[in-house]
Amino acid sequence: MSDVYVVGAGMTPFGKHPDKTAAELGAAAVLEALDDAGVSLGEIEAAWVGSVFQGMAMGQRALGEGGISGIPITNVENACSSGSTAIWGAAMSIKAGMYDVVLALGVEHLTGAFRGAFTPDESDVEAQRGLTMPAVYAMRAQRHFAQYGTTSEQLAAISAKNKRNAVANPLAQFKKPVSVDEVLASRMIADPLHLQECAPVSDGAAAVVLASKRKRAALGGSRAVRLAASTLKSGRAEVGLKDMTVEDLTWRAAEEAYERSGISPSDIRFAEVHDCFSIAEALRVEGLGLFPHGEYPARVVKGEADLDGRLPVNGSGGLLGKGHPLGATGVAQVVEVVRQLRGEAGLRQIPGARVGLAHCRGGKAQGVEGTACTVNILTV
Amino acid sequence: MVSTEAATAVMKRPYEVEDGLVRLRAGRCPACNAVYCPARLVCDGCGHRGLEEILLAPRGKIYTFTTVHQSTPEFQTPYHLCYVDFDEQVRVMLPAAGEERPRIGEDVEIVLGTGPRLVGTEPEEGPHALMVAGPATGRDEDDV
């Protein structure tokens, strides 16, 4: 099986784009990724495209806008992990020896498609009883509070960190730092989560060009980043009374990624994780084995996850700071890891970054722990 | 074979009322005893097809909770939600009755009432939902 490399990365600014369509956003990210890779439109052999609320054939619409047609295009919906599932599919096709150059795109125009709190599918019995995504995480936060003594101030510090990081990211939706006090003063969405602890509604797109070892050599250059592992898991059925502060889904995706890559949690220099809510970041990094269970919020207060900390988390600003166009998010995380590993992250550059991890976990359906979770480990 | 009975179980009212006690309809795997609420066709744990219908105890314990202040545009806020653990080793998400904030570890009983209300409806017009009320009657206070 060939190693897989990210040879090109592109991403639109995240935020509100009322003057653009999803197809236009997608095409812009694709063209930037192609130019970054130095490959032409005709060299792309296949594409996987992730989106959630964009309707039929998002891939054909975006790639058509970008001058790509006729190749195999696979549209992927896997809740918030749609984009990263596209990367998983694209990487798998190279590993299988089917193709040498494959595109993965994530795209979402959410402001045109959505308002209010994000919920499971409307047919879901829990959604019909009033369950929202913020409520799911709020209830998990209440358990984290009860079991580990976590506080609202500590969770607010996670948001403040990510919004501070976003200021150093020109593509981020939020441009201003937000203090812990300001987070706590923002209106309550689902107790204990405040507005500033919830990812915003965003539009945007991100794309990566993946290549086989052979194609990477043919392209030359030294900016390729190796995709050491790309894993996908779905949530297991909820049987029995499980600890809701433990992310079995995240750990199973991570465990396979660590095994496949030969990279252990202690080798990870920095991580982009799915911080759809402040508490979510804690649940993710604890689930990934990057921080001891129950301790992450207190360690954020000590600065351990800052850009200059022991293990920077969401240096891009994360979903809380950079924005969360659902289908685009998983690809944007990988774009960020690639830019960090290339030393192209500007003011938010993590010195000496050689190994980075991207974690994307999405969705909720009645009776399962979560919809889907991906882990991508990248290295130079 | 999946029995027709099991296949149609999901279409039934999700609870039964016995002697004034509200009991949620659930499914138990006859092979490995795993309990699902609502029931499903096939046991995830062992793959057995066809769960047997059971009624859960009319009481449970609050595992966790939240108060929702912003929901989808359809629902009026605020309202309380909680996950309730039952002795049958199954956890169910239910709205909480009343204005009082639920507490972790609180014993509750299942009652029928008005769930989170749809925008534009009055309390008495709302759809009937399964609700959780606390504290449960006939339980020790120090059981919390």
Quote the average pLDDT of chain B.
82
> How far do the termini of chain A sit from each other?
19 Å
Give the quaternary arrangement of the chains. heterodimer
CATH homologous superfamily classification of the largest domain in chain A: Thiolase/Chalcone synthase
Question: Which blocks of ≥5 consecutive residues of chain B have pLDDT under 50?
Answer: 139-144
Main attributes of the structure:
A: 380 residues, alpha/beta, Peroxisomal Thiolase, Chain A, domain 1, two-stranded antiparallel sheet, 13 helices, globular, B: 144 residues, mainly beta, OB fold (Dihydrolipoamide Acetyltransferase, E2P), 2 domains, five-stranded antiparallel β-sheet, four-stranded antiparallel β-sheet
Question: Would you mind describing this structure in some detail?
Answer:
The complex is a heterodimer of chains A (380) and B (144). Chain A is α/β, with parallel strands linked by helices. Chain A has two domains: 4-114 and 202-227, 3-Layer(aba) Sandwich (Peroxisomal Thiolase, Chain A, domain 1); 125-199 and 229-379, Thiolase/Chalcone synthase (Peroxisomal Thiolase, Chain A, domain 1), CATH 3.40.47. Chain A is built from 13 helices and eleven strands. In chain A, the strands form two sheets. Chain A has a nine-stranded mixed sheet, with helices on both faces. In chain A, strands 5-6 form a two-stranded antiparallel ribbon. The longest helix of chain A is centred in the N-terminal third of the chain and has 16 residues, at 22-37. Chain B has 144 residues and is mainly β. Chain B has two domains: 4-55, no CATH class; 59-143, OB fold (Dihydrolipoamide Acetyltransferase, E2P). Chain B is 4% helix and 40% strand. Chain B contains one helix and nine strands, in the order αβββββββββ. Chain B has one helix at 4-9; strands at 15-18, 21-28, 35-36, 52-55, 59-68, 79-86, 90-96, 107-114, 128-133. In chain B, the strands form two sheets. In chain B, strands 7-6-5-8-9 form a five-stranded antiparallel sheet, with no helix packed on it. The interface between A and B is large, with 34 and 37 residues.
